[in-house]
Amino acid sequence: MENFCAEFEGAVLRGLRDCGVDLGGSVSLGAAVSGGADSVALLVALSEILKCFPNAALSAVTVDHAIRPREESAGDADFVESLCKDLGVPCVRMNVPEGHIKRLSRECGTGVEEAARAVRYERFESFVREKGVDFLCLAHHADDQCETVLMRFLQGSADLSGIPRARSCFIRPMLGIKRSSVERYLEERKITYRTDSTNRSLSMLRNRIRNCVMPVLDEAVPGWRKSVLSLSVKAGEDSLFIRQAADSAWKSFFKEEASDGGVTFWIEAADFIMLPAALRWRLIMRAADGVHAHEENDRSDGGPRERVPWSFCSSVSEKADVSLSGAGNAGPWSETCGMVCVRFDGKRISVQRKAPVATESGFFVIVERGGVYVAGPWSFSVSDGGTVSGLSFEGGDFAPCAREGDLLTVRFPFVFRSLMPGDRVRDSGGRMRGVSGILDGWKCGDLKFLVPVVQNLSGQEKSIAAVLGAACGFKDWIVRNEDLV
């Protein structure tokens, strides 16, 4: 037993050193502990290692996310506090208000797990600041790395480097250790741990990969894990080179200037077209991130920030290529995604917050009974039973599709209006989707602000019943659930 435990702790010590930790001096380490096997093994190993380094301090942090039943979520935090007391390690418990993460998930249009991760890291950063921690140790291990690389591959990610060993103050000293070694270490140390019931749920992609895909690969392709870990190392080296090249290109070619409502990043089109495609889309994405960071309504609640997709950045790169190659129209053009607009004026390519256009003046009418209604450029009829029909456009040069038949039936009262920030609509699987993102996926451009949205005004959710995109030549998104419409 002693030999294996010493070997395990030696591997964690080497991991610390690989992460840049010098235990010979005065250093403060933190450990993020959930109560699961991985983080408990990390905590125990660190407490044993630091017995030999009197100038190094160790403290722990645990977060109760309050998204599982109380006996599980609070029970995990209670267990961590008790274990830390037994080990003589100071522990900080951070309780997230019940319902906060689910509310954040709805507001941001993301999954609960993504929202929980954002909140968790915000709490970690607060712990690091308040306790003066130099490095916060996270318990990711080699099996987690395999899962991550495989998941990114299946999602079409350009970054197969996986989980970084170190980023800022966050370090992962167990990244080279297998899960089987973690379990054996706890068994031989006679240390218990908690099991998260959600790890068995197949609703999350990572769990499906862990519980369904990886066992099949273990049987069909022996040694695949070693190959994937090797791939992650090589991909990491490639990613580092590309990031450095992108940093250099950003500093050399992109300029920043203040503009109405935010900031504009721009580059001479002649310089942009000379860059490799692998850098172009990354630079567009970086500029878009910069625009979001300068928005007045940029989130400060730990929620994930809106990101423009690779497909949009790649499309902009290809459009610039065509415009400047002489093969296409070199006249001005613009492309929008969410609240970001990329423009080409013949000389420069600029990225900025999308400015309001004429169609964004908005339209809004509350419908409480049957009749004929006008909302901005739209007119429509509503029967006494709440059936919307006869939708037509009354002004401007735009000629959308007239909708003469019945479109949907909605309970009174409801509102017929234009798109608003934060609009979300339920999909067939019961998940909430951002309406702006749906319209971007339909490639509506600025016409998205002409697309009528029908929203219930009764019930607690005041849910969106329909997005009438077909009126502008796109698609309709109509919620069929009788509880919502």
Write the layout of secondary structure elements.
Blueprint lengths: L1 H17 L8 E6 L4 H13 L6 E9 L5 H18 L3 E5 L4 H9 L3 H20 L3 E3 L4 H13 L11 E2 L2 E2 L7 H11 L15 H16 L3 H30 L1 E5 L2 E7 H6 L2 H18 L15 H16 L7 E5 L2 E5 L3 E6 L10 E4 L3 E5 L2 E5 L4 E7 L9 E7 L4 E4 L6 E3 L5 E3 H7 L11 E4 L7 E5 L7 E3 L7
Parallel strand pairs: 1-2, 1-4, 2-3, 4-6
Antiparallel strand pairs: 5-6, 7-8, 8-11, 9-10, 10-11, 12-17, 13-14, 14-15, 15-16, 17-20, 18-19, 20-21, 21-22
Cα distance spanning the termini: 64 Å
Into which percentage range does the β-strand content fall?
15-25%
Mean pLDDT: 86
Strand order across the largest sheet: 3-2-1-4-6-5
Low-pLDDT stretches are 296-304, 356-360
Rg calculated over all Cα atoms: 27 Å
**Percentage of residues in helical conformation:** 40-55%
Give me the count of strands: 22
Shape: globular
Indicate the structural class: alpha+beta
Largest sheet entry: 6 strands, mixed
Q: Can you give a write-up of this model?
A:
The protein has 13 helices and 22 strands. The protein is an alpha+beta fold. The chain has a 6-stranded mixed β-sheet, sandwiched between helices. Strands 7-8-11-10-9 form a 5-stranded antiparallel β-sheet. Strands 12-17-20-21-22 form a 5-stranded antiparallel β-sheet, with no helix packed on it. Helix 6 (142-154) packs across helix 9 (224-253). The radius of gyration is 27 Å and the shape is globular. The protein starts with a helix and ends in a 7-residue tail after the last strand. Mean pLDDT is 86; it is low at 296-304 and 356-360.
